[in-house]
């Protein structure tokens, strides 16, 4: 059976990364170093290449809004990645730099702050694409709403002045179904600003990253006990998310939402327990259907992507074996 176009594109991205990663690592490094702190650039490079082992099987079947790739020739766009030093940001920077684009990793540590507006005009000058991968330093309800609203307004206003042609943001599968969560309300406020901005856009709704399992456990820990929801979720590896973000950056805006998720649904309590056990963490995990997940109860549909979602192929076991997880205190 012929693979869908989106799947073919992911495989070709993977193949070109594979060719480039071995031989041109030093080129990539110098290109990335132009736009971000050198330590972070090395991390991004190191992280991009192991990702090549990931099989990028993706099914886009049934999705009404297929993305259309721009010509492979267009490889010199200026792309600004807000939050380019973060987990997904640094991996996305590496993937787009490999392709020869002029990638700017923007973050407060490098003098670009979407919350205060510092450095934005200069960073966005000449940019065609902006990918917003920033996260709020605080997850407290009021603070996180203020962060995404203020940062969103500042960023979109600066993009209008700069004439940006595609704004891309990473949000969360099910955010629209869970208004009791302060964090998810803030993500919906961010999305509303984007929809109303008049700038062509693509919003990617991802499920939870495997890297966030430690954060989920941490946020639900009292003493030595972790009490988490027993609802289904379908987490994804950050490498698979970054593959999609890079692919979307080189595609036309869909002016809508596309969903991505991991290959397999799990009951949250069962996967958190497995993760802690593999990490030799002695905490006991209890599954409770009424346990709150960042302020809201979940049902078995809440965090699971729909039938048309693009599916990353890295399994939990593959991820755990290849990317030793940060165990706790991860605020992603
Ligand atoms: N965690 C999940 O499971 C999950 C699932 C779906 C979607 N998401 C979304 O994915 C996005 C990226 O998450 P992540 O885990 O990759 O984030 P992360 O690793 O926590 O990185 C956050 C980034 O945001 C930057 N940042 C913070 N404040 C900023 C500001 N005022 N202006 C500009 N940049 C700022 C940080 O810069 P510094 O390094 O300088 O501090 C850092 O680069 C978030 O929007 C999140 O909502 C997360």
Automatic annotation (TrEMBL):
InterPro entries, sorted: ComplexI_NDUFA9_subunit, NAD(P)-bd_dom, NAD(P)-bd_dom_sf
Coiled coil: none
Protein name from the UniProt record: NAD(P)-binding domain-containing protein
GO molecular function: protein-containing complex binding
Naturally occurring in which organism (per UniProt): Mesorhizobium delmotii
One Pfam family named in its UniProt record: NAD_binding_10
Stretches assigned to the NAD(P)-binding domain: 110-249
């Amino acid at each position: 059976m012929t693979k869908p176009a989106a799947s073919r594109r992911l495989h070709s991205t993977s193949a070109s990364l594979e060719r480039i990663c071995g031989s041109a690592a030093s080129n990539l490094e110098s290109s990335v170093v132009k736009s971000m702190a050198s330590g972070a650039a090395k991390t991004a490079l190191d992280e991009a290449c192991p990702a090549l082992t990931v099989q990028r099987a993706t099914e886009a079947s049934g999705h009404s809004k297929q993305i259309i790739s721009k010509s492979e020739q267009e490889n010199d766009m200026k792309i600004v990645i807000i939050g380019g030093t973060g987990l997904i940001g640094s991996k996305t920077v590496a993937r787009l730099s490999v392709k020869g684009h002029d990638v700017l990793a923007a973050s407060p540590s490098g003098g670009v702050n979407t919350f205060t507006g510092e450095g934005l005009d200069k960073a966005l000058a000449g940019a065609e694409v902006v990918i917003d991968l920033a996260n709020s330093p605080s997850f407290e309800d009021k603070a996180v709403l203020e962060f995404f609203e203020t940062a969103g307004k500042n960023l979109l206003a600066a993009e209008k002045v700069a004439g940006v042609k595609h704004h891309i943001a990473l949000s969360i599968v099910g955010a629209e179904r869970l208004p009791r969560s302060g964090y998810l309300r803030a993500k919906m406020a961010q999305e509303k600003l984007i929809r109303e901005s008049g700038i062509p856009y693509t919003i990617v709704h991802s499920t939870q990253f495997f890297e966030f399992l430690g954060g989920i456990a941490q946020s639900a820990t009292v003493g030595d006990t972790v009490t988490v929801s027993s609802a289904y979720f379908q987490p994804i590896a950050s490498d698979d998310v970054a593959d999609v973000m890079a692919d979307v950056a080189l595609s036309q805006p869909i002016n809508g939402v596309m969903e991505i998720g991991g290959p397999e649904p799990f009951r949250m309590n069962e996967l958190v327990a497995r993760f802690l056990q593999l990490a030799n963490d002695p905490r006991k995990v209890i599954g409770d259907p009424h346990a709150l997940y960042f302020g809201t109860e979940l049902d078995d549909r809440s965090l699971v992507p729909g039938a048309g979602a693009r599916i990353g192929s890295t399994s939990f076991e593959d991820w755990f074996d290849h990317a030793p997880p940060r165990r706790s205190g991860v605020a992603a």
